[in-house]
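Dear H.,

Thanks for agreeing to be a second pair of eyes. The structure we're designing against is below in token form, covering all 298 positions.
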């Protein structure tokens, strides 16, 4: 019965140190302390509570060699000191049989050497040793672990660049429509055969402010690229009629409708007519009237 009460006192002592006691547990603790005052004086109870408090400590980390050696050495010293105490007890017990000592002296010597409660005191010191080992592990984990290494020269986080989808290039037909819709000074005239003005072969649009225009043609026979080409001309009032401004060369490969950009080689100031001629491959500087296949007045 006393052993059970002592175990309960030990449990309440640990609970008081770690968590605190309820009113009922405090009253029970007070009664048991009064009943076993010798246990309250034993400092090993404090260490026992520390051991219980560290029971959940994660000790998976490997201790350094020097710290482990010191713990083992302290443990050996503790258990050696316990053995020495036991030897003192054995020696004191034998003195009651030593001749020359009175019975009272022998009893007194034994009383001085014998612990108050040898079994419980040894158990308390065993718990204390385990608590010391757990405490050493805790100190190593919190103070002696290597700090997290600082990353040297971290690479800067690069903001991903937004790649814009390129706007698709407008076709020549779309550019012609755009010019018609945007230019305020655009003019549009029909291209006809010089031999028959009623034979319409297409039209021409031109913006003098933008120096840009397009010729739309149909019905022109295909040309032999190796030998000949078609050439555009712009007649300017400020230029001699015999030397119109070249607007570029192009080829015709089929009988369908084609749209050709007009690329004036000189600045056009006052356009009054446009024409299309058939020339030798690569174009010419000055054309002849008999080579004109389409013409329009502005």
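And this is the sequence the design step returned. I haven't edited it by hand at all.
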């Amino acid at each position: 019965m006393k052993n059970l009460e002592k175990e309960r006192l030990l449990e309440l002592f640990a609970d008081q140190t770690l968590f605190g006691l309820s009113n009922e547990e405090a009253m029970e603790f007070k009664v048991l302390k009064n009943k076993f005052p010798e246990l309250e004086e034993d400092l090993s109870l404090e260490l026992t509570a520390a051991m219980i408090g560290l029971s959940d400590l994660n000790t998976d980390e490997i201790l350094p060699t020097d710290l482990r050696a010191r713990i083992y050495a302290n443990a050996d010293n503790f258990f050696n000191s316990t053995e020495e105490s036991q030897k003192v007890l054995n020696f004191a017990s034998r003195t009651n049989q030593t001749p020359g000592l009175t019975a009272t002296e022998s009893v007194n010597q034994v009383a001085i050497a014998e612990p108050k409660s040898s079994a419980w005191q040894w158990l308390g010191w065993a718990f204390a040793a385990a608590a010391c080992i757990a405490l050493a592990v805790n100190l190593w984990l919190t103070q002696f672990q290597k700090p997290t290494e600082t990353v040297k020269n971290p690479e800067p986080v690069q903001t991903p660049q937004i790649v814009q989808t390129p706007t698709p290039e407008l076709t020549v037909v779309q550019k012609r429509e755009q010019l018609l819709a945007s230019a305020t000074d655009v003019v549009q005239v029909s291209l006809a055969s010089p031999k028959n003005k009623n034979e319409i072969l297409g039209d021409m649009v031109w913006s003098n402010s933008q120096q840009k225009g397009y010729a739309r043609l149909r019905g022109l026979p295909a040309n032999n690229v190796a030998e000949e080409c078609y050439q555009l001309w712009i007649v300017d009032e400020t230029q001699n009629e015999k030397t119109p401004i070249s607007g570029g060369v192009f080829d015709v490969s089929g009988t369908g409708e084609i749209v050709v950009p007009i690329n004036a080689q000189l600045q056009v100031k006052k356009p009054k007519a446009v024409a299309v001629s058939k020339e030798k491959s690569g174009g010419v500087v000055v054309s002849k009237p008999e080579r004109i296949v389409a013409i329009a007045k502005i």
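Two observations from my side: DSSP finds eight helices and eight strands in the chain. Helices lie at 2-18, 23-35, 37-40, 44-53, 65-94, 103-113, 118-144, 172-182.

Warmly,
E.
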